[in-house]
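If your schedule permits, I should be very grateful for your opinion on a structural question. I have a record of one protein: its chain in single-letter code and its fold written as discrete structure tokens. Kindly check, if you would, that the fold set down in the tokens agrees with what the sequence suggests. I remain grateful for any guidance, and I place the record below:

***
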Amino acid sequence: MSKFLLRFLLSAPFLLCFAITTNAQRAVIISDTAKQQIFRHDQLYYLEDLHGTLTINDVKSAGFEAKFKVNQTATPTTTDPTPAYWYRLKIRHNPQSHNNWIIEFFDQTIDSIAVYAPDKKNNYKATLLGSSRPFQARFYQHKNFTLNLDNSIPGEQVYYVRIKSHQPVNVIMVLRSVSWFITYALEEYFFFGVFYGMILVFGLYNLMMFIAMRQRQYLYYVAYNLSIGLYEMCADGIAYQYVWPGSPIWNHNAYGIALFSASIFSVLFTQSLLNLKANAPRLNKLVWWVIGFRTLYFVLCLTVNPNWFSYKIIEIVPLSLALFTGCYVLIKGYRAARFFVIGYSFLLTGFVIKALIALNLWWLPVTAANYYSLSFCFIMEMVFISFAIGDKVRLLKKQQEKAQLQAIRQLRLNEDLKDTLNRNLEAQVQERTKELVEKSSLIEHQNEELKEVNILLQQQAEEISRMNVLLEKDNTILHQDIEKISHDRVMSTEVDFEEFSKIYPDRETCFKFLSDLKWDKGYNCRKCSNTHYGHGHLPYSRRCSKCGYEESVIAYTILQNTRIPINKAFYMIFLMYSTNGKISSHKLSEILSIRQSTCWAYSSRIKKVMEARKKEIKNAGDKGWSKLIEQSEG
């Protein structure tokens, strides 16, 4: 037993080495029988450089060998834009291969890629790639990032890739033969041409429909299609290749602008196509709220943090709202929404697949089929949305034809009714004509009697007119007496502000009263004593015709420089006069709704005038309060 234990302990290191070798990183073997190989799982190890300071000499040293971790996901993804990520891959070269080989990166949104490839002397040479570099710097003028491999180095070689990007990206690396890369690229660009050609065709078709029918839904759909096309060009790298090859900065934000535009125009198109204002008023309000919040988020991305554009998952909100709205109006009986629901179901499916891949939740290997699933779903959505637009036009045409048939039936019914009425009217006219002939003699006799009555009525009317003239004069005199009595009653008794305001209701009335009071003995210019004047700029002010001096109606009165409403100032003077100055400022504040301090200052001013003019207003009667308004030259 002891011998067995001793042998086990001696063999343990070898077993451990065997176990480590068994779980070590697998190399991808270059073989002419395989056109391409995608690096997956244990073929790809990664190291997270938290501060972004590591160099190639650091990561390839023995101390960092064990720090690399095996990739556990089908599609490697950088989860945090702050650190840099190092990836290690092994390739077993085959100098006997008849093909040239490249490494290709699928994700065109990666900002910076540095590929460190070994040479025959085991030195590493860096090749810089990424969307932050000019497009012309690429060896292959292709939308994807590519790197030529030196297959003349025999044996297994280790490559290091450093990736840094402002947003989470998919690290999909593929080993391809150049011949297959060319074949694949030609086919891919062919399908891109078909895809973007369909977008242009659908856009031009709907633009012509808008010009012909002048319905906004077509214009919204054109803008939506163009936005989707721009987004796909940004995501595929086509825009960088053909639209702004010399401006890498556009790669960072252009897709966010395209997504915002697509979201806004998609919900506006939904709102117009499904006629939500009539079919679903509450959902129509919700659409406007979503547009507002999406616009606010877009502005924040532009002004606060452009990296927020990378949270594309936010687009599920307007997309889900559009699909739910379509289902809702379809259930309510709006048949034009059926193709709309199918189209947006495809779009939501593609979006969910792309979101799962981006969030590293997709359980299947990433292939061209699921990588371009969203593009395929866009095509299906465009097809079914075109059907939906045609279906709506067909339903509108059907409704129009139905309305025309109903209008024709109504016209025929109206024609029949008109003929029946005409026949009845003709019979009635004949009968009435006969009656009129029989009664004509009676009418002539009655006319004679009426003439005599008219003469009598005319005489009575003249008498009534004369009496009305006298009554009108009496009414005028009575009305003037009532106004005078009402004025005298108000001016001689304690009345509230509402009743007082009937006499002086507004600023215009108060100014007129002041003008009559101030210049009752004629105008005399205070500067040059001229007696001729014209109207000034302010109401009821007077301007000297000689020196041009303009005097306002409240100048040189107790109301000068008063900031409270003039009718309230009138009432305060009246209350001070009628109470002989005994009313408190607190009471005035309560009555006039003016601050107590203001009432105290103004009432004190009035009391001084009352004291100064005690003799003058003693026997003034109901006109005594108006004597307080006048003020001396000082």
The radius of gyration is 48 Å. The first helix runs from residue 2 to 22. DSSP finds 20 helices and 14 strands in the chain. Residues 80 and 487 are 85 Å apart (CA to CA).
